[in-house]
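User: Second chain of the day. Same drill as before.
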Amino acid sequence: MTHFIDFEADIGTSIDDTSFDLVIVGGGAAGLTIVREMSGLGLKILLLESGGIEETSRHEALNEVEALGSLEGAHLQQARQESHAYQLKFWNSETQKFGVRCRVLGGSTTAWAGKVAPFDSADFAQRGWIPHSGWPIGSAAIAPYINRAAERLDLGPIITDREFWVASKLKEPSEVSRMQYLSSFFWQFARSRHNMTDVMRFGPDFRTEEHKDVTLLFNATACAVKTDVDGVTGVEITSSLSGQRRCIIKSTHVTLAAGAIENARLLLISKDGAGRALGNAHDVVGRYLTDHPSMSLGSFSPDGQERAATLLGFFALQKNYRAFMYSHGFALRPEIQQDKSLPNMAVYTNIRISENDPLVALKRLAKKQSQHPVSDIVAVLKSSGLVLSSVGRKILGNPKLPYRLRRMIADAAVLISANFVARDYAAKGTGRKIDHITLDVICEQPPLPENRVTLSDRCDRLGLPLARVAWEPGDFLKRSVLTFAQLLEQDLRAADIRGFTLWPEIAAGDMSKVILHDMAHTAGTTRMGRDPATSVVDDTCQVHGVRGLYVAGASVFPTSGHANPTMVIIALAIRLADHLKSRLAAKRLATLEMPVRTNAAGSLVLVTGATGNLGTEIVEKLIEQGYRVRGQFHRKVPSDPRVEWTKADFADPDLPDEALDKLVEGAKAVIHLAASLPGRPHIHTTNVTNLERLAQACVREGVRYFGQASSMVVYGSPASRLVSEKAPLIDVNLPIEKQYFAATEMREYARSKREGEDILAKYADKMHVDLYRIALVQKSGYLEESLTWSRKKRFFVLYRNSHYISTSNAAKAIAHLLRVSSESAQTTGVEAFNVADTNSLTYKDVYLRAGHKLAVHLPLLLDILKCLAIGKSFRKRYPMGFFRLDNSKLRSTGFVLDRDN
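Assistant: Same format as last time:
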């Protein structure tokens, strides 16, 4: 559903006459996260990506920067080349004398190591010894978004300190407990959901997803942000390769997510009506440039390498049948930072894999390039386990195998030896024998205004001024590194961690030999703050003085601690997305404040979840029948001008009674569709707690009819193939697993739906309650789409969920039941109806009609085994894909299915 357009090649596609609700500049971690958070909301979103779907050298040329000062030094650039080039296809230190950027969908996650961690709480505070420190928001304000970022990154529990040892049920190493200045710090690794031998790559992952109402325009370089007196009006773009195509994209909300260098560069290029750079009234744009300065402090002797690799290596933590990888290092204690006036710093192992490795030897033998075949053969035979693991790597990389099976194998490997897996990744499967280990420091850089991005007099091939970068680590940081090195050496000696030796120049305290290079963690050029004199964006990430213009990514960081920035980048992107949802929803609602009264004299019906697929259809049916409609929405922004719209979140445990009363005020009937689906958080709050509170509000406000969207899951795994409303329901007072042979999240969903039915029965003496036990609701043509599925998907999914009802028929049935109730003399009581098409087609029917032959499906056997594993029973029970709801009671009310839908 995501619409991909190549701005360079698709010359027949015109988008300059389209206005978008939101334009995002940059398809890296921040930009793609915002898109993911906001897709499916009913908003038109455009993502601009200067690069292509794949990296090319022509795109890389647009990353050129002009460097000043020590960035021109040969030793520094050599250190940068050695640190970064090995994991990048096209990057080189000549083009990018500062920074590591990949101009491609996915941005720098194309080449990152997947290493993430949250910031320490002290990183957000104002510290007297760190100039210009302090965030306008604290760690508590960002904590919920850190949790959501962890979900996006597929991480385990967020633990960065010594509590990891408790959580992983491992004994804390005695050496660590003896350290005085440093303490354990744990990073995690975001592993790919698709390639089990790789870290998460945002670009390839995004291409496998479907995002409604999202257009991705690649090969489209932003030239300038356009504004007027009211705020942002759009973005001017040009085609990235030729520069021959140009247009202006219209939008009143634009988010820059192109990285710290490009965000500042674009603001400086863009001018307001007075000719000033946007957001730069106080000459702050581009200033306070930071990175994570880094260098090697020393190495371990050969006899100390294995112990160091074990102690400061990788560890596994298991939760919810998943295994997660954590990397162990040492970080400076907060009290030591304060006592010695040091920035936040940490040290980690840098392990280099030897060329003298069994797998390398095997490759030499296979290619007949071995100069010492006997010794190579011996090396291979001695390490047959390592050789066999290379076969396992190929198995994990085979997309034809089911995802869950590959994930299970990968998790098992992590649990058996996280270090083994990490070394395999570092060597890209070519070997795991250690050549040498160094300890590298990663530093917080104090934000200084003289470190900055400005515009060069030179231009790139598109005619845009190059970014000019001035970046110096500074003497304060160099002295801090030498102090840190001394503290590290003392702690390692006290802890009896043997074999480590500082480099001679570091041990001698020679500040002239401290060569710190950037870690590709560029930040700070559009920093966040409340004072426009010292910041570029406010605490919502909107540019000071430019309405509708926002910035995402590390460029808004006031300071950046020592932790790798991606987790906080994503957390802030999610926070910004939430803010944009509210802003854009309010803007849309302002245009819908006065509904078009097509049925001014009709009774008012409240429909919750009115912007969903079923809700939209029900609203249409009710308006056709002469009702006035009030629609509740939470996530998806409404657009129907005939409806009176109200925003409310039933997942909110603090949803005020007043809001519920206002929601139902004046309504004669309520059709409640809003619910949390299986596996979603707050399912009990939404489906049980706030359902009862809504029912109580209905009683207070005199609502006469309450229709509840229940589900066929309330029957669990029934004993009969055809299920009527009189069939036994799940008993929530008994073990659910004995009644419903399904995954845990489905059982919890079924429990909530059954509890919801029982709750509404308590209010049936005050109003009439209809319970809609609905089969799987799908749009027309749902089954026919399965004809295009892959063989694997057909094999594992085909027989499931075959009992369905079209969205149109489900809506028609619910509107019909409301009318029947309004015409009835019975004003109270509770009735349950199976809302289903008892004779709906199955996958088998569709496939046979299309001339396909159906094979036996292994998952049927798996369902039988599931009954035994979950219910500990061989009792005859029907899985959801095999039983059918009897709709006789619904038909007895006069309802007729529309066979065209």
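The domain at 1-154+190-291+449-470+519-588 is CATH 3.50.50.60 (FAD/NAD(P)-binding domain).

User: Great, on to the next one.
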